[in-house]
C-alpha cells in the first residue's frame, strides 16, 4: 500500500521552509499531495493561479508530487485523495502549540495521522506572514522563495 501524505496550506507564498519540509518528506512517503486551501474570506497577496504555478515550478519533474486546490475540511480532502498522513513543519514551540491541537482533532475525526518534521535550522526564521510584509513594503524576498519569478510574473 502506498504511503500518501498531504501537505496543506495557503502558501501565500510557498517558502524555502515549505520546500524543505516537502523534500524531507519525499524520503518518507510514496506520494505527497501539496494541497492549496482556498478560503473565500481570506485576502491573499498572491493569486491562486500564480501560487499553484510557483509550487509546481519548485518540483518540476518530481513524480512523487501533485499540487491540488481544495475548499473543505483538510481531513475530508485527505480522504478524497487517499492520504493517510498530513505532513507539517515545526520551527518552534509556537508552531507546536498551534499544530498539535489541530493534529489531535484531525485524528479524533479520522484515522489520519499527522507527521511533524523540523526544517533545516537556516530556515527557522522564514515565515510566510513576515515574507508577505517584506514584499508589500518593497523588500526583496527571492532569498526566501525558490523560483520567485514564477510567483510575480
From TrEMBL:
Cofactor entry: Mg(2+)
Coiled-coil region: none
One GO location term (cellular component): cytoplasm
Pathway: Cofactor biosynthesis; coenzyme A biosynthesis; CoA from (R)-pantothenate: step 4/5
SUPFAM superfamilies: Nucleotidylyl transferase
Catalytic activity: (R)-4'-phosphopantetheine + ATP + H(+) = 3'-dephospho-CoA + diphosphate
Binding positions (substrate): 10, 42, 74, 88
Gene Ontology terms describing biological process: coenzyme A biosynthetic process
EC number: 2.7.7.3
The keyword Membrane belongs to this UniProt entry's keyword annotation: no
Marked site (Transition state stabilizer) residue numbers: 18
Highest rank taxon of the organism: Bacteria
GO molecular function: ATP binding; pantetheine-phosphate adenylyltransferase activity
Top-rank EC class of the record's enzyme: transferase
Cellular location(s): Cytoplasm
Keywords of the record: ATP-binding, Coenzyme A biosynthesis, Cytoplasm, Magnesium, Nucleotide-binding, Nucleotidyltransferase, Transferase
Main location: cytoplasm
Keyword NADP applies: no
Residue ranges annotated for the Cytidyltransferase-like domain, each copy included: 7-133
Residues reported in the UniProt entry to bind ATP: 10-11, 18, 89-91, 99, 123-129
Quaternary structure and interacting proteins, as annotated: Homohexamer.
Family that this chain belongs to: Belongs to the bacterial CoaD family.
Record function comment: Reversibly transfers an adenylyl group from ATP to 4'-phosphopantetheine, yielding dephospho-CoA (dPCoA) and pyrophosphate.
Official protein name in the record: Phosphopantetheine adenylyltransferase
Organism: Fluviicola chungangensis
